[in-house]
Amino acid sequence: MPDANALVGKGGYPPSAFYFKVVFSATMGMSDTSFQEVSGITSELETETVTEGGENRYQLQLPKAVKHPLLELKRGIASATSPLVIWCRSVFEMDFAVPIVPMPIAVYLMDENQVPIRAWTFANAFPVKWEVEGFGSTKNEVAIEKIALSYTYSNRLI
Fold first, then answer.
1. What is the pLDDT, as a whole number, of residue 55?
2. How many CA atoms lie within 13 A of 142 on its CB side?
3. Of 122, 126, 133, 113, which is closest to residue 84 (Cα–Cα)?
4. What region, left, alpha or beta, does residue 54 occupy, with left being phi > 0 and alpha being psi -120 to 50 degrees?
5. What is the pLDDT of residue 126?
6. In 3D, which of 96, 153, 88 has the Cα closest to residue 126?
7. pLDDT surpassing 80 at residue 26
8. Distance CA 11, CA 138 (A)
9. How far apart are CA 150 and CA 68, in angstroms?
10. Pairing status of strand 37-39 against strand 116-132
11. Is it the case that residue 128 has pLDDT exceeding 70?
């Protein structure tokens, strides 16, 4: 395990958010494509409000369950042979003739030496939305696709 100073970053600054890696079990360790953005790494404790009889000064907030929003990945449109594209097509274009195969996903925040300094894993993830951003004849931008994934739970490893 890296020392505490390495986790904070050089000079005591927090790590940069632009150098990260997303790993899918479907790619079997091979590089699929780079992602422009990852969002939705969030855990929220859902609570239930309970009013205690005879107590009018406050209401109790009792914990219920941890909920997770969708994990969203944004990248340039990949080739049809991309393992991630094949996985998404099996979910959205096969009319459920083929069962949805959930898979683990890991997101790593890297340092300048390509060493992970933070890591999150997402269990039983599967795509629930596959979107292509709009095209514009006046823009000079890369064509972007967004993939939203549902998952059972997440863990922060480092």
1. 83
2. 11
3. 126
4. left
5. 96
6. 88
7. no
8. 43
9. 8
10. unpaired
11. yes
Report the first-to-last Cα separation within the chain, whole angstroms: 9
Please report, as a single letter, which amino acid is at residue 48: E
Whole-number mean pLDDT of the chain?
87
Query: Based on the structure, what is the number of domains in the chain?
Result: 1
CATH of the domain at 50: 2.30.110.20
State which residues form the domain around 29: 4-156
* Owner of token pair 């390495």: 6
Q: Are 108 and 118 in contact (CB under 8 A)?
A: yes
Q: What is the 3-state secondary structure (H, E, C) of the chain?
A: CCCHHHHHCHHHCCCCCCCEEEEEHHHCCCCCCCCCEEECCCCEEEEEEECCCCCCCCCEEEEEEEECCCEEEEEECCCCCCHHHHHHHHHHCCCCCCCCCCEEEEEEEECCCCCEEEEEEEEEEEEEEEEECCCCCCCCCCCEEEEEEECCCEEECC
Confidence band, pLDDT 50/70/90 cuts, at residue 10 = low
Q: Is residue 27 scored above 80 in pLDDT?
A: no
Q: Which residue has the tokens 């395990």?
A: 1
